[in-house]
Structure formats: structure tokens, C-alpha cells
Design a protein that fits this description.
The protein is an alpha/beta fold and 344 residues long. The chain has eleven helices and twelve strands. Strands 3-4-2-1-5-12-11-6-7-10-8-9 form a twelve-stranded mixed beta sheet, sandwiched between helices. Strand 1, helix 1 and strand 2 form a beta-alpha-beta unit.
Length: 344
């Protein structure tokens, strides 16, 4: 790890898609010391993109170009930037996705991952990106999370999770068609999801997370009237996981379980498919949620909202979710360090 017990985690900050609000969000959070108590930030990207972000945000930053995070001067008041020199924002018009911007977004993230693999940064927080643009730009993955796993050589289970107001929302299946998702819901995938969210929440200091598992069918199947998935698969799987010591219960009807969770009854909900959980959490706090790529060796966090092409360059983009993403990344790194010290 790049940190010791007396230092803050080093978090690599990437600007996401240069045609979205990411560059201005990064410029804004770097313009004061609002995250100085959370992490040491190093920007991985192109100086021209950061300059554009400054112009959009109406701020001016003192920037110090460095060759790698190891060369950062943490006593300096200047923003530490590894200038990749790879992205000319003038060639990628703001407010619209393009294959070229997607290619460069992936390239920049790949370089940040190289620094993480080399132990020069402890986590990566990335501003919003566009999945379609990245795919069209040559990164042939359905989402960035699978790209990260591929670049890290990760072979075992991992998942995207959404964190909002202390709640960790997970799901059994992710970025795929609903027809494909149904085939991916089975005892093994449900168990993996429950175990991963339990492990992640314990890492953030929740001793025994209360995990609610959502049903697949309306009214949790209405006693078998609307399907027997709950009776024959989901409930037995949840009960088996509970016998291992995990505080999980369910399945609960998906149209009420989030109401109960946000009222404080549960710490986490495991959804069966993407929209079952995303609709609830984005209604709850669209501009505040954080997405975590859970289960990988490197910590990745990002705002749960998108590139907001409709407001790029207008100085309207809020930064709350990006700030929360940095803080959560730093927290997860610190807990990993504590776990490693306990293990020895």
C-alpha cells in the first residue's frame, strides 16, 4: 500500500468523459480544501481537460505537473497532475458522446489502474463516464466495472454497489438485458451478492449489517400465485446464508422493501436486477449517491449520476456525489489497511 498509519490515502482522480460534467466537477472540488481531511488527491488526465474544467467551473487552479504519483509533492498547495497529454478537448465537443472521447476515457482510466497496480495510488475515484462511448471507442465491455476486473486480472465474484445515506444497495445481476438477468439469478449468484455486501459493510465499520433480500416477482410471488422463485430458490438461499452468521432476511416485496430500508429497518437491500434497486436509490438522492466497484483488489468509486450532457459548461453541476465518492474511497482504503494489520 502507498500509505502508512500517519498519512491519508492517495486517491487518483480522473476526469471521466471530457464531454461531460466531470472536468468542471473535478476543478471545483480542487479549488479549495474541502477534501483535505479525507485524502491526498492526484489527478490523472490531460492538463487541457483540467483547464477546460476550470473555465466551466469559473475557478483557477495552480497546477504542478508530475511524472507519476510517486513524484507528488504533498506539501505543495498546487494540484498534483500526471499530465497524460492524450486528450484534446477541442476535438470532442461537449454535451455529446463520441467514440473518441470514450476511447480516451478508457485510456486514462487504464493508466490510473497501472499506477494502482504499481502501488503508487491506493484508490481511484473517477468522474462520470459514458458506457456506450467507451464501448464504441474500443473498450468492449458492457460497463467500466468489467473493464476494471479485466485489467486487474480479477477472476472471482465482484459487483457494482450503490451507497447512499449509509445504505449499501447491491444487486444479483447488473448491466444486461432483463431477459439475460433472469437467467443469472440463481442460488450461487444470490449467495455471492449477500456475502459481498456483508463483507463490504463490515469493512466500513458496520459490525453486523442488516441485509434485506428483495423478491423477484410482484408481491414476493403472492404465495406462488405470481411465480415460485421465492418459494423454491430465493428464500432457501437466504436462509442458508443466514445460518452462516450473516444477518440477512427475505425475500421481501420489492415495491416496499426500500421504503423500509430508508426508514432505518435495514442497512442494505440486495436487488435481483439493476432497475429494481436503481430506481429506488436514484429517487432517494440522485445527486448524492456513490457507486462502488466492490470485490476488486483496487478500490474504485464514482458518483452514481451520469455525464449530464444537458448542463455541461454552465457551471450548474453539483459536486456532492463526487466528494462523497472520494471520502468513501479513502474510508475503504483505511479499513483495508486496518484489516491487513490485524491479519499480521
Amino acid at each position: 500500500m502507498a500509505i502508512n498509519t500517519n498519512e491519508l490515502p492517495i486517491v487518483a482522480l480522473t476526469p471521466g468523459d471530457c464531454t461531460g460534467v466531470g472536468p468542471e466537477q473535478i476543478a471545483r472540488i480542487l479549488s479549495d480544501d474541502r477534501l483535505a481531511d479525507a485524502a491526498r488527491l492526484v489527478v490523472i488526465g490531460d492538463a487541457r481537460v483540467l483547464e477546460m474544467g476550470m473555465a466551466h467551473a469559473g475557478v483557477k487552479l495552480k497546477v504542478e505537473r508530475i511524472s507519476s504519483p510517486n513524484a507528488a509533492s504533498w506539501s505543495s498547495s498546487a494540484v498534483q497532475l500526471v499530465d497524460l497529454g492524450n486528450t484534446d478537448p477541442a476535438k470532442c465537443p461537449i454535451g455529446k458522446a463520441s467514440a473518441e472521447s470514450g476511447r480516451l476515457t478508457g485510456e486514462t482510466l487504464s493508466r490510473a489502474i497501472d499506477f494502482a497496480k504499481a502501488g503508487e495510488v491506493d484508490a481511484i475515484t473517477f468522474a462520470p463516464l459514458n458506457k456506450r462511448a467507451m464501448f464504441d471507442g474500443g473498450w468492449k465491455f458492457p460497463d467500466e466495472h468489467r473493464m476494471f476486473a479485466s485489467l486487474l486480472g480479477h477472476k472471482t465474484y465482484f459487483s457494482e454497489m450503490n451507497v447512499l445515506d449509509g445504505q449499501w444497495m447491491s444487486r444479483v445481476t447488473g448491466h444486461q438485458s432483463l431477459r439475460e438477468a433472469l437467467d443469472g439469478i440463481n442460488p450461487a449468484s444470490i449467495t455471492d451478492s449477500i456475502e459481498l455486501v456483508d463483507r463490504m459493510m463490515r469493512r466500513t465499520g458496520v459490525a453486523k449489517p442488516r441485509i434485506a433480500v428483495a423478491a423477484l416477482n410482484p408481491h414476493a410471488g403472492e404465495g406462488g400465485l405470481f411465480g415460485r422463485d421465492e418459494i423454491e430458490m430465493i428464500r432457501p438461499t437466504v436462509e442458508a446464508a443466514a445460518k452462516t452468521g450473516i444477518a440477512c432476511t427475505g425475500p421481501y416485496p420489492a415495491d416496499t422493501v426500500y421504503v423500509r430500508a430508508f426508514a432505518g429497518e435495514f442497512d442494505s437491500v440486495v436487488a435481483m436486477y439493476h432497475d429494481q434497486g436503481q430506481i429506488a436509490t436514484k429517487l432517494r438522492g440522485f445527486n448524492r449517491g456513490v457507486t462502488v466497484t466492490a470485490g476488486l483488489e483496487t478500490v474504485f468509486t464514482t458518483p452514481s449520476h451520469g455525464t449530464a450532457f444537458d448542463i455541461v459548461g454552465q457551471g450548474l453541476a453539483k459536486t456532492g456525489a463526487l466528494e462523497s465518492a472520494v471520502r468513501l474511497a479513502a474510508q475503504l482504503v483505511s479499513m483495508k489497511v486496518k484489516e491487513a494489520s490485524y491479519a499480521h
